[in-house]
Every structure is written in C-alpha cells, then in structure tokens.
Description:
Blueprint: H1 7-18, H2 21-37, H3 39-44, E1 45-51, E2 54-59, H4 62-70, H5 72-83, E3 90-95
Parallel strand pairs: 2-3
Antiparallel strand pairs: 1-2
Amino acid sequence: MGKIKNLKQGINFYFKKTIPTQQLIVTKLKKKWDDIVGTAIAHHTTPSKIKNKRIFIEVDDNLWIQELSLKNDEILEKINNFLKSKTFEKIFFIFNPY
C-alpha cells in the first residue's frame, strides 16, 4: 500500500487490518437498523452475525420469527439495498429473548 495521506485514510486502514469485515458490516447495520427495517421490526430484532453470504438476525419473540419469515425477501432486499450490493443471499432468524 502507498503512503497514508490523511487521518481518515489511516483510520480506515487500521480498522480493515484489525477488525474482520463481517463485524464491520454488522456494526454498520446495527447503527442504522431502525432506518433499514422500520421501528416495529427493529424493536424486536438485531443483526448478530454473518457467515457465507447469510445474515443471522436475533429475534426476541417466536411469534415475530413467524411474521418475519413471511417478510424474508423484503427484509433481505432492504438490507442489500442499504449496503448497495447483493451482500446476502439468505436470512436466518434466531430466537434470543434478550
């Protein structure tokens, strides 16, 4: 890599080297989760991890898991649109009564 020219470039370089890309994506999603999926869904869910083009979403109620399963494609599209790429191919909803 060439010479680091400014603080922003230096910080980006540091985080790319020290924090796995998946964790950065999860953090980015968590920060804007309410805007991405809407307040009602965000109140009961949180992105938790990424593995092999799959995103795992924790859900606080089994009834919500059923409801979200019906909106699976819509939610997946919203997440991918937010990230401006087809980052994920599947969503898995996991029960976690946090």
